[in-house]
Amino acid sequence: MSAAHAATSFVHRRLKDPASHRERRRFNRLAMAAGALAVSSCGTAPLTIDAQSYRSKGFESRALFLIIHYTQLNLERSLEVLTRGQVSSHYLLTDETPPRIYRLVDENLRAFHAGISYWAGHGNLNSASIGIEIVHPGISTESDGSLSFVPYPERQIDALIPLVRDIMKRHQIRPDRVLGHSDIAPQRKIDPGPLFPWKRLAREGLIRWPDEREVAARLPAFEAKLPSLAWFQQMLSQHGYQVEQHGEATEPTRRVIAAFQMRYRPSRYDGLTDAHTAALLAVLNQAS
């Protein structure tokens, strides 16, 4: 008999032997017990977190900025775009009478409203901001084919101000961090536009505003000698905008100047340097 045949016969005999069956059952019971013990000893204990005993003082809200937009769409389309696609915002303020406020994204989560953005050393503002979209057409086409910005209904602003104040209070958002989409992305966005009532938000104590008497006092010196374009670029950067620093007249610099003018001097926002824009920048940066 070969060695292989002998080994096979031995296995068959052991399988037919009742004593062997008892040994196998005993071995299986021991193996199951050992396995259970291994799972018990290697398993993860329930996670217990004590969130009450100690509290750190070194923290702030993840929401450092509040960004205001207009949708340029009607209510139905605004809801569709903001709830079914990749674009989103934390709040949507409707154009109904009276306006309603929808919370579309929890404030603790990141909404995709800012896109490529920058302000005062901070980039990717989706991660550090709360976004409010206002149902508003933005621009309308006149009978002669020209384009013009559409005023905001007072009822919308009456509803917006308490929302802005509430968000700022809860997250301790500074007034200099309440911004428009055109502030944080001036190369591609113009909302909420030159007719958005920033000055009213300033009267409500929600944003910073240049003191008009100081601006008037600064104006004659700038009228006598207008600063260089490099000065404007440096002052715009100091204020918070992302702007080139080469002293050359370019389209990107013009857009940044126009964004600043739309916010603080909406009567003229051509993006060209002038004494009034210089005075506004000087006063704002001096107060910062």
Write up what this structure looks like.
- The protein is an alpha/beta fold and 288 residues long.
- Helices cover 44% and strands 11% of the residues.
- It has ten helices and nine strands.
- Strands 3-2-6-1-9 form a five-stranded mixed sheet. A two-stranded antiparallel sheet has the order 4-5.
- The N and C termini lie far apart (100 Å).
- The relative contact order is 0.10.
Strand share of the residues? 5-15%
Low-confidence stretches: 1-20, 34-41
Radius of gyration: 33 Å
User: What's the helix count?
Assistant: 10
Largest sheet: 5 strands, mixed
In short:
The chain has 288 residues and is α/β, with parallel strands linked by helices.
How would you summarize the topology of this molecule?
Layout: H1 3-16, H2 18-42, E1 65-70, H3 75-84, E2 91-93, E3 101-103, E4 118-119, E5 122-123, E6 129-134, E7 139-141, E8 147-149, H4 154-171, E9 178-180, H5 181-184, H6 198-203, H7 212-224, H8 229-239, H9 251-264, H10 275-287
Parallel strand pairs: 1-6, 1-9, 2-6
Antiparallel strand pairs: 2-3, 4-5, 7-8
Helix pairs in contact: 7-10, 8-10
Characteristics:
288 residues; alpha/beta; five-stranded mixed β-sheet; two-stranded antiparallel ribbon; globular
